[in-house]
Amino acid sequence: MNIVVCVKQVPDTTDVRIDPETNSLIREGVESILNPFDENGVEAALQLREQHGGKVTVITMGPPQAEAILRHALAMGADEVYLVCDRAIRGSDTLATSYTLAKAIEYLGEFDLVICGKQAIDGDTAQVGPGVAERLGIPQVSLAIALEVEGRKLRARRLLDDASETVEVRLPALVTVVKQINEPRHPPMKGVLKAKKAQIPVLDAETLELDPKLTGFAGSPTFVWKIFTPPRRARGQIIEGEPEEAAKELAQKILGLNVISIS
Amino acid sequence: MLIRVDPEKCNGCSQCVRVCPYGGIDVHDGKAVIDEMCNLCGACVQSCRFGAIIMELPSRDDIDTSAYSGVWVIAECSDGAPKKCTLELLGEGRKLADALGVSLEAVVLGADVGGLGPVLAHHGADKVYLCDHPVLGHYRTGPYADVLTGLINDKKPEIVLVSATSQGRDLGPRVAARIGAGLTADCTGLTIDLDERLLQQTRPAFGGNLMATILCRQARPQMATVRPNVMKKAEPDTRRPVNIESVPIHLDERGVTTKILEFVPHNTGETVNLVDAQIIVSGGRGLGKAENFSVVRELADTIGAAVGASRATVDAGWIPAHHQVGQTGKTVQPKLYIACGISGAVQHLAGMGSSEVIVAINKDKNAPIFDFATYGIVGDLFEVVPALTRELKKALS
Ligand SMILES: Cc1cc2nc3c(=O)[nH]c(=O)nc-3n(C[C@H](O)[C@H](O)[C@H](O)COP(=O)(O)OP(=O)(O)OC[C@H]3O[C@@H](n4cnc5c(N)ncnc54)[C@H](O)[C@@H]3O)c2cc1C
Ligand SMILES: Nc1ncnc2c1ncn2[C@@H]1O[C@H](COP(=O)(O)O)[C@@H](O)[C@H]1O
User: Fold this and answer.
1) Residue A42 has what pLDDT?
2) Which residues pair with B105 in a beta bridge?
3) DSSP-derived pairing of the beta strands B279-283 and B336-340
4) Nearest to residue B251, comparing CAs of B82, B44, B54?
5) Which among B210, B218, B391 is the nearest to A248, CB-wise?
6) Are B375 and B392 in contact (CB under 8 A)?
7) In angstroms, rounded to a whole number, what is the distance separating the alpha carbons of residues B182 and B224?
8) Cα angle vertex B158, ends B152, B162, to 5°?
9) Contact of B238 with B81, CB cutoff 8 Å
10) What's the pLDDT band for B47 if we cut at 50, 70, 90?
11) Bridge-partner residues for B222, per DSSP?
């Protein structure tokens, strides 16, 4: 089974803080990490390989520094990794990114399954997975929480807003995975050492025969027009006193809101 | 935009004929032929295993944006009624359509959904496109995307709004990729720039730390998924005219590759639904262990509130995931939100920041939640919350 996993390097948004004085993003000390959902994607691919044999290929599209997450994937146990990197693809929105990743996947040859994360935590769009599936002309199964392959059939349980469902599609297909699908493994020491020394192959726009009209800024219908800090809620009132008294005062405030409708 | 058949590759297998929602393709003399019924939805391109059908996507500057007009809302329904998120889209869509001076149109896909037409019209739709077919009974990406793409290519709306639900976020990007449209995810604010007739789409980024406004200048339609529970619902007016257009659909179950094997609605087991709740009592890591959620539950029961949770408690396995409030959980908008032992990380704020009144109980006076709480008590929740419950019980009995 040939599996391609798409992974993205993202800033760790748990570390991101806003400077209340200047109202700007404090980037200092914010680490770049492998998008958490994509780590689950790599793990899912490795588990399928363990059951069915085959090859796990991990690709990312990004700047040269994005190499770091490919090394992490290698250390986890991926067979091959590729960095899609070119000045021409900078500024890609989700549409152009989907096109570019699909071209890379096609370039790499025959595949049975493509795995993406549910969403990348920097943009939170969850649009690249379905976009890649469309460009490849294969069915998509988003929000997978369990996967099972039998012959040419893929069965997946999907975690929806207020339900879960099990679907079956034929391979090749694309799935996006949620966090609860598995617990990603810690890379073994041996893997880390091997990954450190590995050469990371780069795929550029020419190799992938990208249409300059469909990638980068030119291929991106959407663009960010302005960025601002969200309006902040005002700091309210701290109710002082011993727990009993404070609770009493709070109860009065709550009753005063007239929102409780208990019969 | 162009679609054509490569006669070298076509072997006349007829798969494309079965999947075409518009009956726009047929096989003559062993080769597929596309006729004027073709809607450029691209379903055939996808279905062809021989790569014999080719569609050329337009380059950005070829698009005549003035050919596109009208605001569309893609409806979601359950049990024969529109979902709340759809009524919110209609409320918001009405404003945008009025600002632009164009009509607001709703699209319904499903099986036996004829009854929805008047309801959507009463909630503000000037026109309802009814796509009623047995194959559309349960949401599946393939047939929904085929029908919707065809309809968009045919009617050319300038704006298409989709709910940012698990369904909308599966369908939206598939359709946008097929027609080469721009799609902005999970918007929390929409306005019109009248000078350029552009949709200004505002959404949180970086885990809610920043807001970004996105524009789509050249491509059409301008598509957006809209976060549920942020926009105001449209109110019904039964005097509004009802204008329904039935869209002919020729889907065939045999052409659909995805099969639904099982569908299990989440049984929340709670009396009150989090998303619609007027009052929510939420617990965080400060509870220390699963059993201690009883402190939160007791307060919630006393005042008829739903129970929410921070992600930390869900990750710890103290409470099921459908209770989670926040960026990766639910967005809620109650009149009163009581946070017990929650630090108030931005990702949590992203889900409850638009609550009318926020109450925080936390033993750390520097916890970020106190920066935005309406009322706060710095103290041990195991003392404060039971005392609060007692007080309220007394007052309400
Ligand atoms: C991509 C991404 C998405 C995320 N999405 C979400 C999301 O949807 N929802 C969400 O909630 N989080 C989300 N998070 C996680 C978020 O960053 C926080 O880690 C989480 O909200 C913290 O939960 P908490 O407040 O319960 O725990 P903590 O941050 O550990 O806070 C516990 C609080 O309890 C207080 N406390 C302890 N004991 C007591 C006591 N006896 N009495 C009173 N107070 C006490 C402590 O002072 C502390 O402030 C996300 C993170 C990422 C990276
Ligand atoms: N630049 C990229 N390179 C590789 N994969 C990506 C890239 N951007 C997004 N993806 C994949 O698409 C998923 C959804 O991303 P997004 O649509 O940006 O939220 C991610 O979890 C990745 O699997």
Assistant:
1) 98
2) B72, B127
3) parallel
4) B44
5) B391
6) no
7) 8
8) 65
9) no
10) confident
11) B159, B182
CA-based nearest residue to B231, from B93, B382, B43: B93
Report CB contact under 8 Å: A14, B200: no
ipTM, interface predicted TM-score of the complex: 0.88
Look at ligand 1, atom 18, and give the residue with the nearest C-alpha: B345
Residue pair A42/A81 in contact (Cβ under 8 Å)? The answer is: no
Q: How many CA atoms lie within 13 A of A246 on its CB side?
A: 22
DSSP bridge partners of A150: A153
Which residue has its alpha carbon closest to ligand 1 atom 14? B347
The verdict on whether omega for the bond into residue A184 sits within 30 degrees of 0, i.e. cis, is no
Query: Which ligand gives the minimal distance to the CA of A73?
Result: 2
Whether the full predicted model's pTM is greater than 0.80, yes or no, is: yes
- Amino acid B18: pLDDT: 80
B interface test, pick of A14, A259, A261, A263 with most B CB neighbours within 10 Å: A259
The answer to whether residue A197 sits within a structural domain is yes
Please, are residues A66 and A60 in contact by the beta-carbon 8 Å criterion? yes
CA B100 to chain centre: 23
pLDDT in tens, A188-207: 999 999 999 999 999 999 99
Q: Quote the minimal CA–CA distance from A134 to chain B in Å.
A: 6
CATH of region B2-56: 3.30.70.20
Task: From B252, B274, B273, B300, select the one nearest B352 (Cα to Cα).
Answer: B274
Residue with tokens 């005062």: A249
Q: Residue B182: which of B195, B163, B200, B194 has the closest Cα?
A: B200
Q: What does CATH list as the number for B62-251?
A: 3.40.50.620
Quote the ligand 1 centre to B365 CA distance (angstroms): 15
Distance from the Cα of A190 to chain B's closest Cα (Å) equals 30
Residues 6+ apart with CB under 8 A from A252: none
Gap between the Cα atoms of A207 and A104, Å rounded: 9
Radius of gyration for chain B, computed over Cα atoms and rounded to the nearest angstrom: 25
Q: Do residues A182 and A51 make contact, with C-beta atoms less than 8 angstroms apart?
A: no
By residue range, what is the domain housing residue A9?
2-208
Count of all residues that appear for chain A in the document: 263
Percentage of residues of chain A with pLDDT beyond 90 = 76
Asked if B387 lies within 8 A of A130 by C-beta distance, the reply is: no
For domain B279-396, the CATH architecture is 3-Layer(aba) Sandwich (3.40)
User: What's the CATH code of the domain at A115?
Assistant: 3.40.50.620
Neighbours of B369 (CB within 10 A): 22
